[in-house]
User: What shape does this take?
Amino acid sequence: MLNIALFGPPGAGKGTQSELLIKKYNLFYISTGDILRREIAEKSPLGKEAQDIISSGGLVSDEIIVQIIEKTITENPGANGFLFDGFPRTYIQAYILEGLMLKLNTSLSCLISLQVGEEISVKRLLNRGKTSGRLDDNEIVIRNRLKEYYDKTLPVLQFYMDRGIYHPIDGTKKVEQVHLEIEQIIRHILSKKLLNIVIFGYPGSGRGSQGKALAKKYGLEYVATGDLLDDEIKNNTEIGRKICALYESGTLVPDEMVVQLIEKKLANAHNVKGYIFKGFPRTLVQSYILDGLLRKHDSYISKILEIEVPTLELISRLDARSKTNTKMPYDSSTAKIVKRLQEHENKTVPVIRKYNQLHGVTKIDGMGCFEEVFAKLSDEIENGFKNLK
Assistant: This one.
C-alpha cells in the first residue's frame, strides 16, 4: 500500500496536491475534520460521542480519532493506500498512527512536507479570503493558525526525520513543479516495494509446482526451504554436511540453520519484485521469524494464499506421486502420507489461522487441472501488484 502523510502550513497547497495524488494512485483521502463530520452526520456511536464532546466545548480525544481512522481504513479495502491530511498533528498522534499502521500490517510510506514561509502563506490566504467568503481568512486568525501549526508540527516532522521517511518540498514553486517533485518521491518509494507471497496448502495440493510457475511468470524469487537445504547438500558446503548428518540421525533441521539460508537468499537477491515463500513458515515460531526477516529488509508479507484440496484427493495424488521420480520420502506408504498430513494439521494450520486473523488468507480451490488453478492464483498475484501502487 502507498500511505502518505501530506503536511504543510495553511495556504501551502495541500488541497490541490491531494486531489492530484488521490486520482492518480487510487488513494483514499483521510482528513480528521472530514471524517469526524461524516460520523456525526451519520449519527454513528463514535459520531454521537464526538458530537457530545464538541457540544460541551471540549476537544475530541485521540482515542476517538484513532477509532474513526481505523474504521475508515478497514471500510475501504479497495483503496491502494491512504492520504492523511492534517494527521498526525502532534508527536503523540505520530506514535498512534505508527501503532495503527502496524496493527493493519502496513506502514506510513512517507511524510511529504510542503514548505512555505509565513508571509507567503498569509498572502495566499488573504487572497483566498477575497473570493472564498471564509471568516477565518483574515490576518489575525491566519497568523494564529500558522503559529499553532509550527508549534505543534515541528516535533512531528522530527519524528519522521528520525525514521528516514521525511521529504521536504519547496511549496512556493508552481503547482506542476511541486507535483513533479512529489511524483519523483513516490516513484522511488514504489520501486522499493516488494510483493511477498506466502503460499500454503497440504502436501499434494500443488503449492510447489504452482509457486515455481508463478515466480517464473511474475519475476518473483521462489524461496522453498527444501530446495535451499538440497542446494547446500549438493554444493557440499559446511552447512550441507551438517544437514546430511542431521538427516542420517533422523533429526529435524533446526530453525537457526533454516533462517541462515533464508537470510542469505534475501541478502543475495537483487532487482527482484518480491518473493514467494513455500514450506516456510511451517510453525508459529517460524511465522514470527519470517515477519522479523522481512522487517529487517524494510518489507512485510503482502498476501497469503492457501490452496485447498479435499483429503481423499490429497492421498490419491501423493500415492500417485510415490510411483514417479518426483516422490518425497513420506510418499512411500499410506501410513507415512497420513502422518505427514497430520503433521501439517497440527503445526501449520495454526499458522494459517494466525495469518487469517491478522491479514486475511485467500482460499484457492485446488481442484481442476494445473492451468485452471494457476489462473486463479495469477489473478491474486496481479491484484497484489496493483495494491502496491
Summary: Residues 195-388 form a domain with the Rossmann fold fold (CATH 3.40.50.300).
